[in-house]
């Protein structure tokens, strides 16, 4: 008989996983968990493993993968699981899906176990949706489990955060994720480089190592080299893919943090992108650290607006950002 694949957290999350399973087995798992951590740390695998185990009829360390509940989950539908996420093409979770949550938690679990509500990303709920969820969080009923996932828990209403037990996932050390990354990236050298470039986020490292992401990173490197040589920033912005604006800003923020670190300490050991040292040295020579802080603030604000659906014009953001870079690189 073919078995479904059990859901297992990623290796560096296993200590947190064992804490969760101990609580579950002791009957002390809270009714609402807020699982947070930066994008790329793998929190979804932890949440998915917990959801699968909660819905499993015969759980061991992880869900068994073969009971009726596990098979339904693997097939993409379980009557005691409700997932809430932004509609396709949207950034916000509005009130209607949360109203459905309130009706869902009032029902009896069809399989006799947990009713599970999975909300991701939780910070995408608008104010009306968040307020509508409060009633269910306050009066969840027996055997109800809310799992809220968040990249930015500070963006949740305080009333939501206060009704959840917060599980913040720390950045893993290299030793805990190096074997996993090395296996997927073809060796330790590649794994170490991309782990460092990602800021210690293993899934981000894996994504950055993909051919398309490598090409974008190289294109940005060439763009900034061109700006140093006097290229026109608006023309350079036109060559970049405006659909990749979030990733472009992410790279820029990482590079600016490197620049500031180098400018303040002169120490290259802690840099995330040591391969960009020639560019950094030119930039540090031409501009003051406080100027890089201003540009960093601008990049973070634009990325925040994009993430919150503020709808800035991507091409104008790219142009304005590169104009600011060029001004500093040539000052």
CATH class of the largest domain: Alpha Beta
Secondary structure tally: strands: 5
Number of folding domains?
2
Tell me the strand order in the biggest sheet: 2-3-4-1-5
Could you please say which CATH topology of the largest domain applies here?
Answer: Rossmann fold
How would you describe this structure in keywords?
331 residues; alpha/beta; Rossmann fold; Zinc Finger, Delta Prime, domain 3; 2 domains; 5-stranded parallel beta sheet; 5 strands; 8% strand
Q: How is this structure best described in words?
A:
- The protein has 331 residues and is an alpha/beta fold.
- The chain folds into 2 domains: 11-168, P-loop containing nucleotide triphosphate hydrolases (Rossmann fold); 210-329, Zinc Finger, Delta Prime, domain 3 (Up-down Bundle).
- The chain has helices at residues 14-25, 43-54, 68-75, 95-105, 127-138, 158-161, 174-185, 188-197, 202-208, 211-228, 233-239, 245-265, 277-286, 289-307, 314-329; strands at residues 32-36, 81-84, 115-119, 144-150, 165-168.
- The protein has a 5-stranded parallel β-sheet with strand order 2-3-4-1-5, with helices on both faces.
- Strand 3, helix 5 and strand 4 (144-150) form a beta-alpha-beta unit.
- The radius of gyration is 23 Å and the shape is elongated.
- The N and C termini lie far apart (69 Å).
- The model has no long low-confidence stretch (mean pLDDT 92).
